[in-house]
Amino acid sequence: MVFESPPKQDRILEDDAPIRPESGDDDIVAEIKSAILSKIVLAAGKDVKRANIHDWYIAAALTLRDRIVYQWLQSDRAAQRRGDKRVYYLSLEFLIGRLLTDALTNMSLMGPFRTAVEDLGIDFDALRDAEPDAALGNGGLGRLAACFMESMATLAIPARGYGIRYEHGLFRQIVSDGWQEEFPEQWLLSGNPWEFERGDVVFDIQYGGHLDRIEQTDKPSRTLWIPDETIQAVAYDTPIVGWRGHHVNALRLWSARAVDPMRLDTFNNGDHLGAMSEMARAEAISKFLYPSDETPAGRALRLRQEYFFVSASLQDILDRHLHSDGDIRSLPSHAAIQLNDTHPSLAVPELMRLLVDKYQIGWDDAWDITTRTISYTNHTLLPEALETWQVELFERMLPRHLDIIYRINVDHLAAAEKHFGADARSRASVSLIDETGGRRVRMGHLAFVGSHRINGVSAMHSELMRETVFADLNSLYPGRITNKTNGITFRRWLHQCNPELTSLLQDACGAAVLDEPERLRMLEPLSDDRAFQQRFQAVKRANKIALAQTIASQLGIVVDPSALFDVQIKRIHEYKRQLLNAIEAVALYQAILANPEGNWTPRIKIFAGKAAASYRQAKLIIKFINDIGNVINNDPAIRDLLKVVFIPNYNVSAAEIIVPASDLSEQISTAGMEASGTGNMKLALNGAITIGTLDGANIEILEHVGEENIFIFGMKADEVVQRRAMGLDATGIISSSPMLTGVIEAIERGVFSPDDPSRFAPIAHALRFLDHYLVSADFEDYYRAQRAVDMKWHSPEWARSSILNVARMAWFSSDRTIREYAEDIWNIPLT
């Protein structure tokens, strides 16, 4: 029997070698092999000869985790010893993806582990693929949170992420006959080797009940909350490894459980299912991400989820602070709480409740502590995403918090009256309670008022916050809004997902480019070098061949790697305008049919993304994309010059294959509606050229890469506002565009739905009469921009622009973003 010995930690921590595919030191490889074999026996409980690929994955993950834990504990001890201020990042989503290759890359152990695994006769790529994606997020919001956690660890900022340990998370998307179907994502089915269950970290979370007022003769009256339901939050910790493995932080996720797993009296009376109803009600909180809000029960569950993780996280934060410092009043000096979007906005009244009710802090002092500790990141200007909750639901579920919100609002409106005077409209617009169409609590307003800093996530988005949705609040609290343009972690979205390009960049810019992305600028003189262009294009072609093989195996569609790979991968939403891309495919199809001998650019339009389960129009757009693909892909008349592909169940692992293979990056949201975007950054970093509107971070990408290296089209944000003010009817625009007329008429005739000609009538109707997202209005300019893409594709300028996109993307690192948060919002000095 082979037993593992403790890893040679000092050697591992000092290994700063560049990430290369070659094997590592023989001693380290032997040590890893010994540890993996021991884990197969001692953790999986199997004979090595009977172990399956999942057993090998678990053994490898546990072996790596053992090495991470040493540095994790050391990082935490060092931060405690220094008394460092800590960041607590509250997010309903953490789209962390697979962690094995992420941790191996950051620990500089990819080579030794690959060698060790393959020496044991196991295919390393198969082992890597055995890890399920952690289904803890939907899209950009969750992926940003994951990037930020990795960057905070890389910059050695003591931090902890807080979220929910969803048992199923976001649904698994199956596309059946072109329609999206949703199924539970079973990512925890075989266990999670990365997490540590903290059975000793359990907090009571309470709901409902009523309030009692306690009058005191010599003190202000007190409010006592008497809840009628208690569930428990149990902590699970996952280590997040920073670059080079020098610092490790924790992601703490909460799982819900009932105080009592079942009612024995009910069970013994024969009601076996009823006996477990309380357990089912409690555990529903951490079952799924974003339950449908179409029903009252669904809306109630969402609010329960948000309070659940906020309350557990704040109780944990205060316990940790008191343990290390002992004085609750010093919290702002030692803790920075960042709210990632409106979902954690309940942190404001919950922190007030804990300070006032539990720790007996006076109201004014508690408010000062709260506002100096909390800051808020806004991610959207869409009204439906700036959550509001019915007062009646709030009062029934969280009566004490509604009481606190009313008290906050009284003080807030008093300040508003001094500022705005007799302007009732302005006072109403800043109120925490929306009185129009039924009384609702405005969660975005609550987060704004309860925070010392509010940031947007691109320069344009932050400015629009000041001018539109938070205009009056910005007037009342000037200087609170700041900008922190999003970024991505280059370790995941370059080093890990595109190792051949990373190797080429090291050859061109030196190995230090892995630590200093600014060195990417050294590529600029090489952008005109034909030999370098050929090497660069060879890497791209290899990535395209890999994606083509994936498409063929998953969908049975054969695509030519020599064609232009035109990619739009993101959540399916009308404002992101997958529909604009799809109808341009129809127009291009019709143009090729009309002139089959034209000099057409072979093009593969690749879509991927999930629509919210209750979002009918978005799901119809998925069906439309698949149906037009079915017609176009099987029409021999166009000679494979155009194909349309929808890759199902888009997730981080799928993105890691698609992003390096992309030639054209579709970032075509209606101007003024995309807060930032991070997919635009990932694709550009990997050499895709952007076609997009002046929206979100596209504007800053334009500034960095240069207008000759990006394709910009469409109305600007102010023009969108003006166009909407004229009405949403687009019949005049359509009648002036024979091409768009032909597209819509084909849709209405059922060309793409011969079995049901009226299937896409809602899409045609929206294009004609309800053009809220300016799909029809921007169509002609989009089609023009796409033909400019075709012209560039046929010239040497394409390779040059692709290289320059990579060369000029260093600023979009999430390390830069986190440095700005640390300096401007969290007040944490960095060396």
UniProtKB/TrEMBL annotation:
The modification N6-(pyridoxal phosphate)lysine is found at residue 682. It catalyses: [(1->4)-alpha-D-glucosyl](n) + phosphate = [(1->4)-alpha-D-glucosyl](n-1) + alpha-D-glucose 1-phosphate. One of its GO terms (biological process) is glycogen catabolic process. Its main location: cytoplasm. Its cofactor is pyridoxal 5'-phosphate. It comes from the Bacteria. Gene3D superfamilies: Glycogen Phosphorylase B. CDD domains: GT35_Glycogen_Phosphorylase. Its EC number is 2.4.1.1. One of its GO terms (cellular component) is cytoplasm. GO terms for molecular function: glycogen phosphorylase activity; pyridoxal phosphate binding. It is found in: Cytoplasm. Keywords: Allosteric enzyme, Carbohydrate metabolism, Cytoplasm, Glycosyltransferase, Pyridoxal phosphate, Transferase. Pfam families: Phosphorylase. Belongs to the glycogen phosphorylase family. Phosphorylase is an important allosteric enzyme in carbohydrate metabolism. Enzymes from different sources differ in their regulatory mechanisms and in their natural substrates. However, all known phosphorylases share catalytic and structural properties. Allosteric enzyme that catalyzes the rate-limiting step in glycogen catabolism, the phosphorolytic cleavage of glycogen to produce glucose-1-phosphate, and plays a central role in maintaining cellular and organismal glucose homeostasis. This is Alpha-1,4 glucan phosphorylase.
